[in-house]
Write a structure and sequence with these properties.
Blueprint lengths: L10 H6 L3 H6 L7 E2 L2 E2 L1 E2 L10 H14 L9 H21 L7 E4 L2 H13 L8 E5 L8 H10 L2 E5 L9 H7 L4 E7 L11 H10 L4 E4 L11 H4 L3 E5 L10 E5 L1 H5 L11 E5 L2 E4 L13 H17 L1 H20 L4 E4 L8 E6 L4 H10 L2 E2 L1 E3 L4 H7 L4 E5 L6 H18 L1
Parallel strand pairs: 3-15, 5-6, 5-7, 7-8, 8-9
Antiparallel strand pairs: 1-2, 4-10, 9-10, 11-12, 13-14, 14-17, 16-17
Helix pairs in contact: 3-11, 4-11, 12-15, 13-15
This protein binds 4'-deoxy-4'-aminopyridoxal-5'-phosphate.
């Protein structure tokens, strides 16, 4: 990356000139030593770090503007409401949703999917109805459907993946039948890095008249999403994977679907009127936002999306692709390493195992070298089962990773070899 062509004005240079050194300076947390070594953070798929503009936006709100939203006529409440609803508009723009009525703030991807399962699925599904997912889903896109199946008698069907970790699209299509009520798929697999062909899946869903939910937890950080162009009905993501804070996320839902759903949780803010004879519901999106929301979280998320837009979503994705290609070559050259997940189209995730070494031992040793990676089943136990491994080690990349980070990872993996080789 950062190869500098002679002609600095050429469009090629403009594309190549992603200044990772400058980006890194925006992330104060990266500037530290762990176990006596400069930190290399390769665990952004679990949670990404936050740049200074996000930290500043949150601190500014907490220091100057905090009050409850939608309630007070006083100035602080108005400022808080403006900032909170302004963040919703930023999310709308980012996803290219038609209206802020379609943007529901939730705790994260997990809550968004549970909301759809309970508010969309529970009143609709009957025994024998089918929810179609894939083999590479995170538990957050499996368990809510299992709970719903237990409540309604519906059945969860699973489309297979191949040995590279690619979805078998023909098999998925064959599984769509007259009883299929919803297709729910990941945009990007957190365990394998596979990018799913969302446009093609959306076309299949449309052709069969079945709504499509996309778990975008790993999609939003790594590419441009246009929910309207793709024809997605529900899209869920988490702030903390896209340079924003924890405890905030988004459910995008097509307005016609959200309007037809009952509230999920009851309480303040989600009502229009309450009496003991019965209550009526607020308009979208507040119908789905019971109680005081995570105001500062939404503001931080808005700032995070602005930050990503300023860097350039495409420029970040291109940078990460270069890191992934480099890491794929360098890590697979370490003796004893086997990559788990070798799909043709991947994003920012490199999962692997090492002969004779448990992934947890890999994680512990590389941590002592200052390199933070994730080890375990990555909340995707069926993926581990599919590949016949109990766990993997996973390095994941973000806008602030440098090719040196990969050199440090590879050097640390050689240390692992020394210990266990
Ligand atoms: N889906 C995917 C693909 C994920 O990677 C994650 C987070 N690991 C989730 C869902 C759940 O996200 P959260 O914990 O933020 O709700």
């Amino acid at each position: 990356m950062n190869a500098a062509p002679a002609n600095r004005d050429s469009p090629i240079h403009a594309r190549a000139a992603f200044d990772v050194e400058r980006v890194r300076r925006d992330f104060p947390v990266l500037d530290q030593q762990v176990h006596g070594r400069p930190l290399v953070y390769l665990d952004s798929a679990a949670s990404s770090q936050r740049p200074r503009p996000v930290l500043d936006a949150m601190a500014h709100y907490e220091t100057h503007d905090h009050a409850n939203v939608h309630r007070g006529v006083h100035l602080l409440s108005q400022r808080a409401t403006e900032a909170f609803e302004g963040a919703r508009e930023r999310v709308r723009r980012f996803l290219n949703a038609a209206s802020t009525r379609e943007i529901v703030f939730v705790r994260g991807t997990t809550e968004a999917i549970n909301l759809v399962a309970q508010a969309w699925g529970r009143p609709r599904l009957a025994p024998g109805d089918e929810i179609l997912i894939t083999w590479l889903e995170h538990h957050a896109n499996i368990v809510p459907w299992q709970l719903l199946a237990g409540q309604t008698g519906a059945v969860v069907k699973v489309a297979p993946i191949d040995d590279r970790g690619e979805l078998d699209l023909d098999a998925l299509e064959r599984l769509i039948g007259p009883k299929t009520r919803l297709i729910a798929v990941a945009h990007v697999s957190n365990a394998l890095g596979t990018v799913l062909p969302i446009g093609r899946i959306a076309a299949l869903a449309r052709a069969h008249g079945v709504p499509l939910l996309v778990d975008g937890a790993q999609g939003v950080p790594h590419g441009r999403i246009d929910v309207r162009a793709l024809g997605i009905d529900f899209y869920a993501f988490s702030g903390h994977k896209v340079y924003g804070p924890t405890g905030i996320g988004v459910l995008y839902g097509r307005e016609a679907l959200l309007a037809d759903m009952p509230p999920w949780q009851g309480g303040g803010d989600m009502i229009r009127t309450v009496s003991f004879a019965g209550s009526t519901w607020n308009e979208l999106p507040w119908k789905f936002e019971a109680g005081t929301p995570n105001i500062v979280g939404a503001i931080g998320l808005g700032a995070a999306l602005d930050y990503l837009e300023r860097l350039g979503v495409e420029a970040v994705a291109a940078h990460e692709q270069q890191l992934l290609a480099l890491a794929t070559r360098a890590v697979s050259a370490v003796p004893g390493v086997r990559l788990i997940g070798t799909a043709a189209h991947k994003a920012a995730v490199l999962s692997f195992v090492m002969e004779g070494t448990h992934p947890h031992d890999i994680g512990t040793i590389v941590d002592m070298e200052g390199v933070a990676i994730r080890t375990g089943h990555h909340c995707a136990m069926p993926v581990m089962e599919r590949f016949g491994v109990p766990a993997t080690a996973r390095a994941s990349f973000a806008c602030y990773n440098h090719p040196h980070d990969i050199e440090r990872l590879v050097a640390a993996l050689h240390k692992v070899r020394e210990v266990f080789g």
